TrEMBL record:
Homodimer, forms a heterotetramer with a Cas2 homodimer. CDD domains: Cas1_I-E. NCBIfam families: cas1, cas1_ECOLI. This is CRISPR-associated endonuclease Cas1. Coiled coil: none annotated. GO terms for molecular function: DNA binding; DNA endonuclease activity; hydrolase activity; metal ion binding. The gene is cas1e. CRISPR (clustered regularly interspaced short palindromic repeat), is an adaptive immune system that provides protection against mobile genetic elements (viruses, transposable elements and conjugative plasmids). CRISPR clusters contain spacers, sequences complementary to antecedent mobile elements, and target invading nucleic acids. CRISPR clusters are transcribed and processed into CRISPR RNA (crRNA). Acts as a dsDNA endonuclease. Involved in the integration of spacer DNA into the CRISPR cassette.
């Protein structure tokens, strides 16, 4: 039999779990190709090798030229390729998931389409931000009010800590450079956080569009999950960069976010939080999900890969 041309797919045993991967790598103005099981980035300074199996998200900025083989490797490795704009602050598209099971996706869809379970998950999300408070009986309006007050306090506290003047969150999506230093850094830090959480969500097999607090957008669930960590990562990083007299705010912000993500073990926490929000406690640590079944009506399933001719009643 004639061999299939091209490099063989990456073996599943070689892949790294989503929570154990490098958070993200941002590239711009280079040629992205493949060498073995590594993605290569080449410009006039030389070539850098990036192990695809350990990468969470590859953020492809302006001026990147990507080969078909590089994209094949990223897809087979479960690494999410995210196409972003200048400074890495706009999102355009993403790649395919690492997960082979739809269990989390089904749990997400079931929870978001039932008002009671949706409210339960939304409250749990806010509960992660207010661990010292009982949010079990709070309405969505009350939770939004608490969150708004918390974020305003954080902005004021970090402004006082760093000496950076602060009035309000003010930015123009069409003109990144028109914002002041702290607003530019907030935009850059937030976009990095979106890329990271998007990579985890897609790697786990969830839908980025089925949000519980946010709704109506293809990345509603990304915004939901990213909001769990903005106060810890994006806001303090942005004020630190604004106070540092940085000559390249987007670059320095990306590096600071990456350090904070690594130091705070964010990928591990993000994967754990998504599972805990969507699954019953007894299923959170269950990883044996690579199973294909056939729906048998109601809540029943039967094994896939089997002929069931004897069940035909005629």
């Amino acid at each position: 039999m004639k061999e299939i041309p091209g490099p063989p797919p990456v073996d599943i045993s070689e892949l790294v779990r989503a929570q154990d991967r490098i958070s993200f790598v941002y590239l711009e103005r280079c040629i992205v190709h493949r060498e073995g099981n590594a993605v290569t980035a080449t410009d006039d300074r030389g070539t850098v090798h990036i192990p695809a199996a350990t990468l969470g998200a590859l953020l492809l900025g302006p001026g990147t030229n990507v080969s078909q083989q590089a994209m094949v490797l990223l897809a087979e490795s479960g690494s999410t390729a995210v196409w972003v704009g200048e400074h890495g602050v706009r999102y355009y598209a993403h790649g395919r998931p690492l997960a082979q099971s739809s269990r989390l996706l089904q749990a997400q869809a079931a929870a978001v389409t039932n008002q009671s379970s949706r409210l339960h998950v939304a409250r749990a999300m806010y509960g992660l931000r207010f661990p010292e408070e009982d949010v079990a009986g709070a309405t969505m309006q009350q939770l939004r009010g608490r969150e708004g007050a918390r974020v305003r306090r954080l902005y004021r506290a970090h402004a006082e800590r760093t000496g950076v003047p602060w009035t309000k969150r003010d930015y123009d999506m069409k003109d990144f450079g028109s914002g002041n230093a702290v607003n530019q850094a907030l935009s850059a830090a937030t976009t990095c956080l979106y890329g990271i959480t998007h990579a985890v969500i897609v790697a786990l097999g969830c839908s980025p569009g089925l949000g519980f607090v946010h709704t109506g957008h293809t990345r509603s669930f990304v915004y939901d999950i990213a909001d769990l960590y903005k106060a810890e990562i994006a806001i303090p990083v942005a004020f630190d960069i604004a106070a540092s007299d940085s000559e390249d705010i987007p670059r320095d912000t990306r590096r600071a976010v990456r350090d904070a993500v690594r130091g705070g073990h964010l990928l591990t926490r993000c994967a754990r939080d998504v599972r805990q929000l969507l699954l019953p406690p007894e299923e959170v640590e269950d990883q044996d999900w690579n199973v294909v079944s056939l729906w048998d009506g109601g809540n029943r399933t039967v094994a896939g890969g089997t002929l069931y001719e004897e069940d035909i009643p005629w």
